[in-house]
Design goal:
Elements lengths: L6 H9 L12 H8 L7 E5 L5 H8 L4 E6 L2 H10 L8 E5 L9 E7 L10 H11 E12 L13 H9 L4 E6 L11 E7 L1
Parallel strand pairs: 1-2, 1-4, 2-3, 4-5
Antiparallel strand pairs: 5-7, 6-7
The structure holds S-adenosylmethionine.
């Protein structure tokens, strides 16, 4: 494992096209969830957004308050170009560390961000998510239900997540994900944590 999963590390992964996590399109567990949202004014945050294919989907569906944050500056520069017409309007793109971000959101989306972080940060991740959510806000998305050798990605199990989130979120749902992409079928959990 790289000891320092910092901005340089992630920037290099994009620069060297070592992006095995990147599926190239908005993922079905997330788009199906977005399709159930009727209020397009919900403030949505996508931390560790990567190429952020979900952003295009949300914009197309008319969502008005989308924020993405990623620690890799060359990546966010690409996103800023790609989404230039929307930046400063429906979309805010932030280059920086999620753990230093301040804000207030109705929905925060998880997809291969948790597993990219050093496992020593897991409690901090949960607490930070809780802080960033407005009352009634939700952390929603997918987590791996499997182990990996080395990492990132760093795996985990339903039991581990249950224990981890229970310390902070009293309203929790962790279920097998029924609409994962084929390579992740049966090894993903769909989570909903409500503040
Ligand atoms: C495994 S990638 C996943 C990207 C995207 N979620 C996807 O599914 O394609 C992890 C992402 O998290 C970003 N990242 C890692 N640590 C971060 C941090 N502390 N704050 C913000 N972004 C971070 C990386 O730059 C990378 O884009």
């Amino acid at each position: 494992m790289s000891s320092k999963l910092d901005s340089q590390y992630w920037n290099d992964r994009y620069r060297n096209a070592e992006t095995g996590w990147d599926i190239g399109y908005a993922s079905p567990p997330l788009t199906n969830y977005f399709d159930q949202l009727t209020d397009k004014n919900k403030r949505i945050l996508i931390p560790g957004c990567g190429n952020g294919y979900e952003v295009a989907y949300l914009l197309e569906k008319g969502f008005q308050h989308i924020t993405v944050i990623d620690i890799a500056p060359e990546l966010t520069a690409i996103l800023a170009k790609k989404y230039a017409p929307n930046v400063g309007k429906e979309l805010t793109i932030i280059t920086g560390d999620f753990f230093e971000h301040r804000g207030n959101y109705d929905i925060i989306i998880e997809q291969t961000f948790f597993c990219a972080l050093n496992p020593s940060l897991r409690t901090q991740y949960v607490e930070k998510m809780f802080d960033l959510l407005a009352p009634g806000g939700k952390l929603v998305g997918v987590l791996f239900n499997r182990a990996f050798e080395g990492g990132p990605p760093f795996g985990g199990s339903r039991e581990e997540y249950e224990n981890l989130f229970a310390k902070t979120f009293s309203r929790r749902s962790i279920e097998p994900c029924y609409n994962s992409i084929p390579p992740r079928r049966d090894v993903e959990l769909f989570i909903r944590m409500e503040k």
